[in-house]
Amino acid sequence: MNTPPHHDPDTPHDLVGIGIGPCNLSLAALAHPLPDLDAVFYEQRPGFDWHPGLLIDGARVQVPFLADLVTLVDPASPFTFLNHLKTRDRLYPFYFAERFHIQRAEYDAYCRWVADNLPALHFRHQADAVRWNPEHDVFEVDHTRLDADGEAEALGRTYTKNVVLGIGTEPYVPDALRPLVDAPGVPVVHAADYLTHRDTLLAAGHVTVVGSGQSGAEVFLDLLRNRPAGRERLHWIGRTPAFAPMEYSKLGLEHFTPDHTRYFHALPEGVRDQLLAAQWQLHKGIDADTLAAVHDELYRRTLHGGWPDTVLTPGVRVRTAGRIATTKIELHLEHTHQNTRTRLTTDAVVLATGHRERPLDHILAGLDPYIRRDHSERPRVDACFRLVLDPSITASGCNVYVQNAERHTHGVGAPDLGLAAWRSAIILNTLTGKETYRLPTRTAFTTFGLEQQHRVPQARQAPVLTPLVEGR
Fold this sequence. Notes:
By secondary structure, this protein is an alpha/beta fold. The chain has helices at residues 22-31, 81-87, 91-97, 104-116, 178-181, 198-203, 214-225, 258-265, 269-278, 288-300, 391-394, 407-410, 420-432; strands spanning 15-18, 39-43, 121-123, 125-133, 138-146, 152-160, 162-165, 169-171, 188-190, 207-210, 234-237, 310-313, 316-324, 328-335, 340-346, 348-351, 355-357, 399-402. The protein is built from 13 helices and 18 strands.
C-alpha cells in the first residue's frame, strides 16, 4: 500500500512506526480511530506473519485471548479478538469450546485480519535509517519500497515528528553452533524455522533438540508424536537445571502488570539487571500443560513394555560442535553440575535457543550522538517508552518510542502480549498530550516496593536526565 495521495510528502507525519509485529499492530489499531493523528507504519515483509515456523498444530498462546491487540485498553474497539470471531460467525463455536487460551495459529489469523483492515500499514517498505533534521525539527526516515521478489523498487524519504520502533526480535544461535547453521548437508535449524524443515527432521535418523524453554518442548513433543514407538531416537537437552514449569500462579502473573512495570523502571540500573536475570522462570519456563503432554506421550509409549528411545537431560551446555564427514554432527556436551563431559552424535539439530531483541544501533546510527545511554551502553528509556534523547530534540516535542526493546528498563513484561495494548495507550496518550485512552491507576493486588505509588505516567512528562554518573 502506497502513501495516500492526499498526503503531501513534505508535510511531516505525527508518527511513523517501523516494524509491524503485534506491538506496532496494537498501536496502529488504537491509533486508527483518532482523527487528528496522522500515523503510518512501515514493514519490509510482504504481509503480517507471527512466528510462522512455530505455528505447530495445537500449540497455544501462553496468555489469555483477552490479551489481544486492544481489549485491555479498549474492549469496545472494532479490532478485538471477539469481534474477529463475530465477523467470521465463530462466536458460538468459540463459546462452546470454552478456551481461554487460543491456538497460536488462531492468534496469527486474528492479527492478519486486523492488518487487512488498517490502511495506515505499508508492507514491502524497508526502513533504512532515521536521522534528525535540526533545521526543520523533524525526523527523516529513509525507506526502500520492495517489489514482489523482495528487490529494491524505489527509494523514499518520510518526515515525521515522532518515531516508534517495533522491530521485534530475531532468532538467537549460540556461538558454539553458529558455524553449523549455514553449512550444507546435515540439517541444523532454528526452531523459528521448524515447520519449514519438519519433514526433513521427521525423516532423520536421530534428532537432538537444544533448548529447555517452551519452543523446545513444543518441537520435542511434535517430533515425539510423529516418530514410531520404540524408534523415536530423540535427545532433548537444555542449560537450565530442570525442564521447569513456567511460573503461572495468579500472584506470579502480576509481574506482567503495569504496576510491576512502573516499580521495575524506578529501580537502579544494577538492581534491575540482577532482578531480571533472577526472574527467568517467569518467561523462560515451559507451560505446565505442555510438560504434561510430553509426559503423557512418553508414558503412553511404555504401555506395552519397554521405554521410548528418548533422552531428556537438563543442566547441559554445548561446548563445541562439528560435522563428521557430511552426514552427521558431533556435539561436545558438558553437564554444569556434574562437571562431566561427553560427545553426542546426531543426524539433525533443532536450536530452540530463543530470540533476542534486534539491536537498534543500525537503524538509529544517525541519532547516536543524541541518544543517552546507561553504564552498559544500552539506550535509556523513560517511563513513557521514549528514548532519552538530547534536549535539543525533545524540546521541540519530538520523540523516538520503543516497543519490546526495553526489557532492561521496564522488566520481564516488555515482550508480553498482555502489556502491548497498555504500552500502546501510554505512547498515544503521551503523543497526543491528553488522556486519549483512560488507563487504570492500579492493576495488581501485590504492592511492589514499600513506597510504590499507583499512578499512570503523565502524558507530557518530560524525560528526566539523570547525572552523568548514570551514563552518558
